[in-house]
Amino acid sequence: MAGQMVEFSSNGGTASGYLAIPAEGDGPGVIVIQEWWGLVPHIKNVCDRFASGGYVALAPDLYHGKSTTSPDEAGKLMMAMRIDEAEKDISGAIAYLMNHESTVGDKVGTVGFCMGGALSLYAATKNSRVGACVVFYGGHPNVKPDLPNLEAPVLGLYAGRDGFVTPDSVQELESKLKELGKEADIHIYPDTDHGFFNDERPGIYDEAAAEDAWRRVMEFYGRVLK
């Protein structure tokens, strides 16, 4: 079944997102959170992949209609985005998904990439309806997750050659989570770059790492959400 754009309540108004539903008609819910490029075809394709795997996937459009292929413009869009409003948009998407007739279970998963990875963890510390959190090389200078408030288990997937979300910063996050007694499974793929999962970026995409990461995500959600 092809996905479609939907609208949901957020911030006292409406926001939109891309919704993909399994051919079977129902499944656990997953919120897919965009990279700094916006709600681009790659993110919609990720939603479709989740739907093919039996999940109801919704990607909220945090830039409200804007997207880009320019790194400079992406940086401007990311820094102009208000974190409190983005969190409300994600919360609105979670509420929409939880109330959707196709969604089963009392928790949803979050997964995000780059900026979205940081927001995935942030949302998990803000919303008790997040039951499983996946972070792909998540980083944003203005996103500060409330780690003591985290309830969901975390799967973190990172790149060894990442100059933005460095291996040292990943190890620091892992140490904090363990000190707080949180459940976290962290993997660093040594010979990959930031964005290795994005198959629309030929110079960055790493097929072997991306396939292994997807396997880990599906196993994680299968254990925690299903």
Side by side, the strands of the main sheet go: 1-2-4-3-5-6-7-8
Q: Treating each run of at least 4 consecutive H or I residues as one helix, how many helices?
A: 6
Radius of gyration of CA atoms, rounded to a whole number: 16 Å
What class do helices, strands and sheet pairing give? alpha/beta
- The proportion of residues forming helix, as a percent range, comes to 25-40%
Q: Detail the poorly predicted runs.
A: none
Please outline the major beta sheet. 8 strands, mixed
Description of the molecule:
By secondary structure, the chain is an alpha/beta fold. The protein has one domain: Rossmann fold (3-Layer(aba) Sandwich). It has six helices and eight strands. The chain has an eight-stranded mixed sheet, sandwiched between helices. Helix 3 crosses helix 4. The longest helix is centred in the last third of the chain and has 18 residues. The radius of gyration is 16 Å and the shape is globular. The mean pLDDT is 96.
